[in-house]
Amino acid sequence: MKTMDEQVRAFGTKIKTRFAPSPTGMMHIGSVRTALYAYIVARQNNGSFSLRIEDTDRSRFIEGSPEDIVENMNWLGLNFDEAPIFQSERKELYQQYAKELVEKGVAYEDEGAIWFKMPAEGKVTYTDLIGNRRIEFDNKTQKDFVLLKSDGFPTYHLAHVVDDHLMETNPVIRAEEWLSSTPKHILTFQAFGWQVPQYAHLPLILGTDRSKLSKRHGAKAVSEFRKDGYLPEAILNYMAFLGWTPPSGKELLNLGEMILEFKLEDVHVAPAVFDITKLEWMNGEYIRKMSGEELTQRLQEFLVDHPNRDKIAPVVPLVKERIKKLSDFVPLTDFIFEKPEYDIEVFNKIKVENQKNVLEKISQTMESFEKPWTAEEFEQAFRKLAEDLGIKVGDMFQLIRVAVSGQLVTPPLFESIKIIGEEETLNRVKEVVSKYPEF
RNA sequence: GGCGCGUUCGUCUAGAGGCCUAGGACACCGGGUUUUCAUCCCGGGAAUCGCGGGUUCGAAUCCCGCACGCGCUACCA
Q: A133-138 and A123-128 as β-strands: parallel, antiparallel, unpaired?
């Protein structure tokens, strides 16, 4: 059996792939995988990768959609080699080709539209690159279909065939929802007398209810994942693994490694369910793998409106192992930059009697420290205080934590305090003592 | 309804006749490290491989049937 590589080489000299979304909304997370695989195949064959905007249905066009697609492809690092093609600008071209088919007698005009005439006999057979499966359709089960609409625009079927022929696309990588239409396309290629490209129909990506992934599954636009603090490398990695495992068995793979390992023929035939929990885990892995400097920079790019954007560098090492998404940074570190809101309910969660009294002692102990405070002195002093007061060490530090941050969960206490500053820390504790239990 | 595709732990998957009393990852549960959380480490439960027939000494792996799911069935893509 020939590999995909051999099959494709037998077809033409250069591998050309394309991503061909229709601009009916913001770029959807599911289409990332289609774009990614097409990109990888082009890259690993020294081929070219381009963008084609399928905007032949004027009524479904959404303003800003092409820009959103380009922007997110750039963000993901999936770069195009050629200028984007807009099908709406090629109207006359499709009309010419439609006319050609009418002249050849394989298409006819009816009610202002041009229809492809289905052969009454015969079968369409082809081998899909995904799963290397032989797929067969009986022409008898197929119906005539519209090539050119009465408004003069082509349907997807005509536009796909004309464009991918002219662009010399091979292989055609698209979602499996197109599988049923493939006989139409193959027959059209043949009617023109053109070489039929190889097809790779990628299995559908499903929502948790097992229906085709859409907005209502919570898996939404790429831009929203970006806004939520997901990293492009994690998104790419996760999406690539929906239906594909690298032969090396690695759990984490960057784009370069994917280009080395990926093969279309290794992609699954069965649909996959999109599971955001695993994406989140992967995102956390990528965050932890980054250097402090790198993370700081990413965070600064992400936190465009953060009031203390320039001061986050020292905080980054404290949260690196505690955040899964860039956006997690904010709630975890707000108390470091701003005095927190206090709530007696939070203090009540710590099982310590006479809290006000203990807080008073904490305040006094802090005041007794020489500046700069040191970790050893801090820890030893409060361990001793806990012992003297007969309370658990853990509770002691939790009380300090809440007094300083207003929260039960924070990055490491002492390190946080060092960033907040001794003065400010002491002020906060004093204020808590004086206002307790009403804040 | 017609046509097409699919079916291994909850999820992503390994698996190409014996290496499978089915392996890994996420998630979950338990334990350890730890002043919280997280990280890290250790351990655990979790798929009779959709069901039923074959073929074979032997099947998750090959064949047939069925069931179920999904997709398409537009002058949408």
A: antiparallel
**What type of residue sits at position A245?**
T
Q: Could you give the residue range(s) of every CATH 1.10.10.350 domain in chain A?
A: 344-435
Complex-level ipTM: 0.95
Taking domain A344-435, whether its CATH number is 3.50.50.60 is answered by no
Q: Say what the pTM is.
A: 0.94
Single-letter residue type at A81: D
Per-residue confidence (pLDDT) for residue A217, from 0 to 100: 65
CATH 3.90.76.10: does it fit domain A1-85+160-289? no
Q: Cα(A128)–Cα(A265) distance, rounded to whole angstroms?
A: 9
The ranges of chain A annotated as CATH 3.40.50.620 are: 1-85+160-289
Residue ranges in chain A whose pLDDT is less than 50: 1-10
Residue A192: per-residue pLDDT: 98
Q: Count CB neighbours of A185 within 10 A.
A: 22
Identify whether A339 is a catalytic site residue: no
- Annotated binding residue at A215? yes
For residues A411 and A320, is the Cβ–Cβ distance under 8 A? Answer: no
Query: Coil, strand, or helix at residue A194?
Result: coil
Closest nucleotide over all strands to A181 (CA to C1'): B72
Closest protein residue to B3 using CA and C1' atoms? A141
| DSSP result, A31-79 | HHHHHHHHHHHHHHTT-EEEEEE----GGG--TTHHHHHHHHHHHHT--
CB A14 within 8 A of CB A276: no
Which nucleotide is closest to the Cα of A138 by its C1'? B3
Per-residue pLDDT tens digits for A344-387:
999 999 999 999 999 999 999 999 999 899 999 999 999 999 99
Bases on strand B under 7 Å from any protein CB: 2-8, 10-15, 24-27, 35-40, 69-77
Which nucleotide's C1' atom has the smallest distance to the CA of A110?
B75
The per-residue pLDDT for A362 is 97
pLDDT at A271: 94
How confident is the model at residue A371, as a pLDDT?
Answer: 87
